[in-house]
């Protein structure tokens, strides 16, 4: 009897958390019923708008601003200030909540795929099938390209093909599961799924080209001659260990990306409330032939991850930037940031680094123009 009580007491925090989440969900549904939402659209619309998009939070912030004397006269500076405050608080809180929740969940899943197990899984496949699996496994691994490079080195030392390792290296920062959920919250399901699909296609094609052309052999000697850490068996983890690991990963990642989120939301706030829509449309609109090129060139020198670029992308999208232009910007920042290229240069020779960069840039530009031409299908 005492053991049962102890066990129940041990998990009371978990039960309380689940209860709070369920209460919030039910409260949102009830609010939706009275507000006339299309409840028949659950789960897709409700999940994207109210859970991932947190539109209820946006409405709540506006209610608070109105309660303290806010105005809805868009021609006044007061409204611009209020709109800026609403945008910053809404995006910052939304990204923070979703980021922590998603990182915790993904880290828990990732705990079942230590490097040596991932190597065993990849070793069962060959050819383009192995490249596809490598790209898919990249979706449950670190959240930025700099974090992916050490794993890339380990896989190379373990004898995996260059097609697999580069497919993994491209997809890991580009299309992780966290970015999918955040994209749903910002842009909806069609655009989010399209982004992930083209990201995976780019990763597989890029890895395949590098492998088939023999460019993958141009890695530095220390990578090939060093001891592979992925051959070392990881200790088995208990459920408690996995939860602790997930919590630690969540906290470490949040601390690492905190200022990128602040800066990204701040830039998005300026774009959203200060820069005229006509300027954005003339420079980055879908009808502007050079918009994709400008977005790609601007994105490469930046160092951020998906969490820092989303607020900027959201603001550009609201101001009339082309869908393909926005995707090109996001992909160039996450897959080809200058710091990650500098770090990758330590592991590969200049010939391979240049080829890798050219392949990804061409792929990103092609995706940008494709989505600018057919983006209306996803809106």
Task: Provide an overview of this structure.
- This protein has 379 residues and is mainly alpha-helical.
- The chain has one domain (109-378).
- 75% of the residues lie in helices and 0% in strands.
- It contains 19 helices and no strands.
- The radius of gyration is 22 Å and the shape is globular.
- The N and C termini lie far apart (58 Å).
Quick overview of this protein structure:
With 379 residues, this protein is an all-alpha fold. Helices cover 75% and strands 0% of the residues.
Portion in beta strands: under 5%
Mean pLDDT: 76
Low-confidence stretches: 1-12, 229-233
Radius of gyration: 22 Å
Tally of structural domains: 1
How many strands, what sense, and barrel or not for the largest sheet?
none
Helix/strand structural class: mainly alpha
Number of strands: 0
Output the number of helix runs.
19
State the order of secondary-structure elements, H for helix, E for strand. HHHHHHHHHHHHHHHHHHH
> What is the molecular shape?
globular
The CA-CA distance between the termini, in Å, is 58 Å
The residue fraction in helices comes out at over 70%
Descriptors for this entry?
379 residues, mainly alpha, 19 helices, globular
SSE layout and pairing:
Elements: H1 2-10, H2 12-35, H3 44-52, H4 55-67, H5 77-110, H6 115-123, H7 128-137, H8 145-157, H9 162-174, H10 177-187, H11 189-212, H12 221-225, H13 239-273, H14 277-284, H15 291-299, H16 306-318, H17 323-335, H18 338-345, H19 350-374
